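Hi U.,

Before I forget, here's the chain from the pilot set. I'm dumping it here mostly so it's searchable later in email.
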Amino acid sequence: MNVGGYLSPPAADESSESLDFSSEALRDLVFHALAEDLGQGDLTTRVTLPGSMQALGTFNSKQKLVVAGLPVARKVFEVLDPSLEWQGGVEDGTEVGPGTALASISGAAGSLLAGERVALNFLQHLSGIATYARRLKEELVGTPAEFLDTRKTTPGLRSLQKYAVRMGGGKNHRLRLDDGILIKGNHLRLVGGIQAAVERALQQRPPGYHVEVEITTLAELDEAISAGADGVLLDNMTPEQVRECVQRAKGRVRLEVSGGIDASNIRAYAQAGVDYVSVGAVTHSAAAVDINFRIEPIPGLGIRDSGLGTEA
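Structure:
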């Protein structure tokens, strides 16, 4: 859990605001996204635009949103056509209103059109996650609880989606299964219960790693505390049940709650007194935000250089 080393020391290192946008993994992701969209090439552009036309494309917000993914959008055009020139605007993590110019890029009009949809797909999706994360974070103002994401992410997009959560003000739970020890229901059924699972995990854990166990009842909470768990995940409980668990635990373990939580009820869970509130919906259900990419010919270059002549 990337929360101050709660489950593991190395996890905290990966919770920084930054993401390696120069990595080969990101380049490969962008390359495959472009290949998926382009096929053999942009047929419409090929049959309508002269190849020499130059243009300027600008990303504009059409609603209030939190920006995330501009470096990914830039990477799309960099992979597609390195001669394109990017002009930065706002920074990721910035909240903007409708009508805000986020960034622009200039160069071959055909390249701008070819990369438009892929760049927007990344930018609208990641900004949607960041925008929802900011809303969740704001719901927690005045409570001691931290808001976490989960591993309920789109395959292949986890690092980007978790980056977007951070841009919105949330924190990351485990990035991968090797980030920490979280004993869940299936583990318990296979091992034979909370006592056996926790005791074995405490014996086998690497140095510095904490052990968290998922529970669904007060009796299981008592058993987890008795077994020596460092943290307890309260799964699919009502706020009232969570409050009972908080009162029963009396600060002996860190408490996290998860299951069915969204912007409509996160505050009620936080006010019950837990340390962490995990929300899977922030990555698997956040709606894409409305951003457009407006392309215009560059005055003196676009239409005139194409041989079509300039407008009067």
